[in-house]
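Help! Submission page says 'invalid entity' but I think these are all valid:
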Amino acid sequence: MKIADNTITQGQFMFFILQTQIGVGVLSLPHQVQSSAKGAGWISVIIAGLASQLIILFLWALNKRFPSSTIYEFLTQLFGKFTGTILGLAYVSYAIFTSADILVLFSDIVSRWILPATPRWVVILIVIVTCMYMAVENLRNIARFLVATSILIPVFLALAIYSMMVNMNVDYIFPLTEAGWLDIIKGSQKALFSMVGFELILLAYPLVEGNSGGKLKAISLANLLVTLLYSFLTFTCLVIFSPREIEVIPEPLLYMLKSFTFNVIERIDLIFLSIWSVSVFTTFISYIFMGMMGLGQYFHKGNHKKAAWWAGIICFVLAVWAGQPEKIRLYDKIFSIGSFIMIMVVPLLLLGWSYLFKVKGETST
Amino acid sequence: MKQIMLFLAGVSLLLLPGCWDQSSLRDARLIYGVAFDQAPQGKVKTTIVIRNMPSGDRKNPSNEVHSVIGNTARQTRDLLDSNISEKLETYKVRALLFGKEVAKKGIYPHLDVFYRDPRASLNSRIAVVDGEASQVFYLRRVGDTLIAEHVDEVLESEEDAGILPKTNVQSICSLLLEPGQDFLIPLLRKTESEEVAAVGTALFHGQKWTGEFNRKESVLYLMLTNEIEKKAQLTIKIHPQHGENPTSYITIDMLKPRLKREVKISPSGGVDVIFSGTVYAKVVEFPENNLTDSDRLEQINHELSRALTLEVKNMLDKMQQANCDALSIGRHLAAFHPEFWKKQDWEKDYAKVRFHPRIKVKILETGITY
């Protein structure tokens, strides 16, 4: 079968999900969770991690019933050709919209921090053009790339640890439950949306080698690492900035690095931005790949390369259109509602449907 | 197809690098120091020091000092920019000075642009000048060092000596914005002999200057906040009975002092703050010269402890008079006694906090003589 040279190992799968989860949200996460959870922001992140673990379990259970089909294939098996295709296209739109949203947030931060004079469309175009080179490859090549770029994650950590050692005041996170548990949960809702990315399991599951238990372990490990990393970074920002200050800083992680100087490097934030860009690109690649796989399936007889042009163009138009803050907020809203529906509600319904009508994929290929 | 791609890649390489956002050092004039002073009618006088890069025919670096009066910090910079060829850039600012009048009125309005601009440097050192801040920069150079670098070096060496707190634009931001927390900024003065001296620290409450510490008091403050990294020197009068005589004094090096702080709320609703611990010291000067036997040493330890505790007490009184909560007592209460904190009116209640310094001194070394 064609799948044979396209499979990935469980380790690669772990990094694939990890890199998809770590993305554009990490810079503003501490500010976002702090705005509702106050000093308990890092607890919100842990709660969000638990919630995403729960969702992962559902997604995994769904995939387990169709062990050799991607989401686009098993939707047809569940609902027949017509309805299945429509639902599949909904997932394609979700993936492409998410890619566009990533570009919107990315270009916004980049133009505020380093390239104020560069037109936004240029930044967006550069990202799309470079990432498309990766996205037209098969899953195995993409996974290899994502594993290779994971070396950059320890750099995130090292910089955060360094900043924390220089300047911290633990008093800032107290009183812990100042905001009340309700707001802490609300904060975790925000954190959850910067941690999505695990829904790629819907696409990648049949291509991962090994048994279903191993696959669950891999994705859970990825989620655990992301939760710990995010929670630590949030904690760092919360002990470095006073609560009043963090309220006025949209990207605390960058701001924190801006004030430190090594002997050789004056502005660590600029170096960090370049490293972080890679993380954003990997997330973008994963999502656009998911979208292109769907388009390929429905319109190009399974060849996702052919979808590259128009997926890229749609993405570009969507991203360029959202230039103003109101539109960015609108996109953010659409994304939260969209991902809530597409990765929580719909998969649960699908799971229920599949049990109810006893639809199952063939157990082995 | 491949060739077209290669061609496109080549062309884009020519076109893409740094088209819009290049800012080359060649075209920039780097501001090394900025000073703000009060001007009449609520305006601000900004003074900047620009460093001229040494180029071919000019071997020695030189600097220029310019002043202008305007409404806000940013506007004055734009006014200066229009006077000066090439573009002013703030990413190398080493020293940021506030004049006394500005500091008494509030410093945040002038700092805002530094926090907002992604290119501004957040790690430039900050200081208050007793008098006009621009006067310091108009010294232009002290010895062989250009003025902005000189100010930076003075501040740095005093930080290392454990006399001045480490402050930069970013470090005071957290403290500026948060209630229940205040801060100290190094205080400079232009001396008669055309030099810059670090005379102590300015106490701030909110964003306003409310008092000042001399050098000794600021060492004691740093001791209480455990900010002395290596050691700090202290001259204490331990034998007042000798009168104004060198023999009344002893000079010690405090070796990385670390004290414990306890904040207690008494049943009657008062706040007690206790500083306790032992400061290990090395005698560097003792004109009376008599430390031979251990009983005598014990006695000196005792006398030192008493004298030091008294000095700390006086320093804390001064701080309370200035209403400057630089020890973050308020923030501590907000964090660990939130219910109590809500009932407090810190503007008034801070003055009622009772401080109890209980500091012991133990001499470990006496140099190479007894």
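Support: the input was valid. A stray whitespace character was the problem, and the output above is from the cleaned input. Chain A touches chain B at residues 112-119, 122, 126, 167, 169, 171-175, 178, 240-245, 248, 258-261, 266-267 (CB under 8 Å).
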